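FW: tagging you since you asked about this chain on Friday. Here's the raw sequence from the shared folder, copied in full. Didn't touch anything.
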Amino acid sequence: MEKLIKLEKEEFITAINQLGINDDFAYDFLYEIFEGVIETVISVIKASPNYKFSAINQYYIILYIVNEYKFHTNNLSKVEIISSLEQDEFYNFIASLCADKYLTNEQLSFKDEAFLNRFNPPISTLDLYLNFSLRTLSNLEITNQSQGLIRDLLTKAFKIGKCITTLLVSGFETEAFSTWRTLHENECLIIALIKGGDKAINSYFKHIRYSLAFRGQIKSKEETDEVFIQIKDEMHQHDLKSKDMKKFIEYGYLYDVDGYDKLENFKLNFRDGVENVAALRNYSPLYEMASEIAHSSPLLIYSNRSYFYELTIINLLESFFRLESIFEIFYKNSTNSVNYNNFKTLESLYLNQLKMIHQIYMDSFENNKNDVS
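HL: got it, structure written out here
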């Protein structure tokens, strides 16, 4: 083990100040905790010569100390905190927690070997694009409710995308694929609402209110009763029965998307409704497979990790391509030409790389697609 140059007290105080700890009366106590944890970690490493430990990260130890201190003193007065700091039991308790958590979570953490790390182009390029899109959306000035809804749905979709890439680099391929199921639901909803325009978006907000009434979350009984009268009246207009109320509340906004009645097998559900309106029913078999995994079928337990790794990348990218095209139009209509042209520069480089990556994975998957488990 390389000789550790321990942070001096002044350096330690600077670090905890940056993390929001400015209780000067706690500096000595916290630095003693820091020294104690360092000593414990070193002794454990020396006692385990056959285990390959990584270099001690003193700032990770500080993060554990600061967060434990904040958590256990959050509801205490200054007098109570000072009293606690004078007790050996409190010192031993915090020091033990921090040493155990640092060793177990950082040095002895369970890690499944992943197919990718965050620096590989399939992840790093997509994460770059997702981060750019999320920052851009958060800075846009929204002028109406319809814009706000599309912005919020796109934001959630790109956040789910980041969730999936995080799962992939952590070695959780089946979990990543089941999370794609949520992304698919989100993108289908966005596409359906954009097809329906303001009429469908206004109806979507109306059905949110219907859902609140159905779940008893509107405080006024009179208002709740009025909502149910409105629900039943609209259901009657569409020849729906009482048993269809929940489906109507959840999916009835689809009636306000022009052309819904011309769709084959249209019903008030996700697959025959939202997915159908979005023209993405070709993804139904994959959606069903992801649902099986989400509900702890044998596919979740006994599956070919390589199969679901490639399948997740492919479907994540395909969802992203559709969402990116929506984002481009939305951004063009919400910003100035300078910002939009800067975006097009980024798009021309990184979107092409992602399309190339998608093709590589498609070719590989075609050669191995029958090996599910």
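FW: The chain has two domains: 9-107, 121-368.
HL: agreed, and The chain has a mean pLDDT of 93.
FW: great, closing this out.
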